[in-house]
Design a protein that fits this description.
Layout (H helix, E strand, L loop, with lengths): L21 H19 L6 H7 L4 H9 L6 H15 L5 H18 L1 H61 L4 H65 L8 E2 L9 E2 L6 H13 L3 E2 L2 H4 L7 E7 L7 E8 L3 H12 L10 E7 L7 H13 L31 H4 L15 E3 L1 H11 L4 E3 L11 E3 L6 H12 L4 E5 L3 E4 L8 E6 L2 E4 L2
Parallel strand pairs: 8-11
Antiparallel strand pairs: 1-2, 3-6, 4-5, 4-6, 7-9, 10-11, 10-12, 12-13
Helix pairs in contact: 1-5, 4-5, 5-6, 6-7, 7-8, 8-11, 13-14
């Protein structure tokens, strides 16, 4: 498909990071990549802007638009719908069907099992659409039948009234009898027409209801086929999982010379698929302290999901816990707490205990490898420093990449600390210790022991934000000390130093936002 055939030409605002190499990806993915690029140009935004909109990193979108990776069906549909909204013009059904066929062909060339499941889902969606359409048609016909019955009843009543009036009028008003007979004949003809219409509508209703039943039965059959296909896929995964951790003892042909045992740990791709499926089968739980208290302190793996309570949830991170799942999950909770442009209300998790005596890192890598290579899942937070601890003094000067977690979600300096509202006195060191315990992000400080005895810092009455607390502490310490609020943590040292990832500096009375 040449560029420009799919949609009308317009301004080209999206620049793609990768070229399409048809010799490397094959003709099916090559055709799909060209079509996706044409659709992307309807958006009127850059690749980076669109990656933020759809909550996918830019590298994943580049792989979609270069043909290196076949995107999921829902991404293709979203790309079309986003372009329709942006341009105010709906693509024709023929164009949309062409894009779908390109996607299904590329998907089948890449993963036949995934293509089979997608075909069943497509058939089920079409059958469901036909079923809803036919049910709607049956409802309309049912309403027309009811209306025809009402009109027929009204006509029958009027006929009876005319018959009664005609019988009385024959004795007294013979002159008017002919006119009444004419009206009677006209009304009777109209009644006969209504009766014929009622018979026709009743037959059409019966046919519509029959077709609706057949459509519903087709939906049921397709659902059963889909359930069977998914069950068979689960059985294949279960058989592969049975090989995980299996130790095979093989006597070598040279045992008389050098006896020994070869050991094979069945860590297979199917095991990764099974673990990923097990994580997806769990009901996502809100990432709150209440739910974390219900998790046992055992090793395992977990995934973090992002999305509203009634919205589809995007997989953001897959992690491990060598000792205690609740401790690692609580670390993730605190990593998100107190950050901008993200809320714990949108974060959920699922988890699986690791029963083997192996480290949880192996199952974690199996799941990540399966999701990235087999499903094309990006796992944005596994690649952007989400799980990093306090990097330490030597890493404070490292320039963070634009996609880093701390850049996308910097700390919130307006975070409200727990404070009872009373006026209190602290020493500078005690107040810094208090902040370290109450802030949801790291606060590293190097105050001298002598500053623990100087009770001169007064916290006024009322609520207290992190920014206000840093201003109070810096004012008390004076110009020689500097509080540097970086994008991922806060540090306090006796220095005047500029940092590449700084948000704000506090020195004595002077508070300066970083450029």
């Amino acid at each position: 498909m040449a560029q420009g055939e799919l949609v009308p030409r317009g301004p080209r605002t999206m620049v793609f990071q990768r070229d399409i190499d048809g010799t490397q990806i094959g003709p099916d993915r090559y055709a799909l990549a060209l079509a996706l690029r044409e659709l992307a140009q309807r958006l009127g935004v850059s690749l980076g802007r669109y990656s933020v909109r759809v909550h996918r990193d830019r590298s994943t979108l580049s792989r979609y638009f270069s043909g290196a990776l076949v995107p999921p069906a829902e991404f293709v549909e979203q790309l079309i719908d986003d372009g329709n909204r942006e341009t105010g013009t709906e693509l024709t059904s023929a164009v949309r069907d062409t894009v779908r066929k390109l996607h299904r062909t590329a998907l089948r060339a890449t993963s036949p099992h995934s293509a089979d499941l997608q075909d069943l889902r497509d058939k089920l969606a079409e059958a469901d659409r036909q079923s809803r359409h036919l049910h709607q048609e049956a409802r309309l016909l049912r309403e027309m039948v009811r209306s025809a019955h009402e009109r027929l009843d009204e006509q029958q009543t009027q006929l009876r009234q005319l018959e009664q009036a005609g019988a009385a009028a024959r004795l007294a008003h013979r002159a008017e009898l002919d006119q009444r007979d004419t009206d009677f004949d006209s009304m009777r003809a109209e009644r006969d027409d209504l009766q014929a219409t009622l018979v026709r509508l009743t037959a059409e209703l019966a046919e519509a209801e029959r077709r609706a039943r057949e459509a519903e039965e087709r939906c049921i059959r397709l659902e059963q086929q889909l359930d069977t296909a998914e069950a068979q896929a689960e059985e294949r995964d279960a058989e592969a999982e049975a090989n995980v951790g299996t130790v095979t003892h093989t006597a070598t042909a040279e045992a008389t010379i050098s006896p020994g045992i070869s050991v094979h740990l069945g860590i297979t791709r199917e095991a990764g698929a099974r673990l990923a499926r097990t994580l997806d089968e769990q009901v996502p739980l809100p990432l709150t302290e209440t739910h974390l208290r219900k998790v046992l302190g055992r090793p395992g793996i977990y995934q973090l999901l992002r999305g509203g309570p009634s919205q589809p949830k995007e997989r953001m991170y897959v992690g491990k816990a060598d000792r205690s799942l609740p401790q690692r999950l609580d670390f993730a909770r605190l990593r998100i707490l107190g950050r901008k442009y993200i809320s714990l209300d949108d974060m959920y998790f699922t988890y699986v205990y690791v029963e083997d005596d192996l480290s949880a890192v192996a199952p974690e890598h199996l799941v990540i490898k399966h999701l990235q290579e087999e499903r094309g899942v990006s796992l944005l937070w596994n690649q952007n420093g989400f799980s990093n601890n306090d990097p330490g003094r030597r890493r404070d000067q490292v320039q963070l990449k634009p996609q880093h977690f701390d850049v996308s979600h910097p700390i919130d300096l307006d975070w409200s600390l727990r404070h009872d509202g009373r006026r209190q006195l602290f020493s500078p060191k005690d107040f810094a210790t208090y902040l370290k315990a109450e802030l949801p992000y790291a606060f590293r400080q190097a105050l001298e022991p002598a500053q623990a005895d100087d009770v001169s810092l007064e916290v006024p009455q009322g609520p207290l934000s992190a920014d206000t607390a840093f201003r109070l502490l810096a004012r008390n310490l004076g110009e020689s000390w500097q509080i540097s609020a970086l994008k991922g943590h806060v540090i306090l040292y006796k220095e005047h130093t500029e940092y590449p990832n700084a948000l704000r500096y506090y020195r004595g009375e002077n508070v300066t936002d970083a450029s």
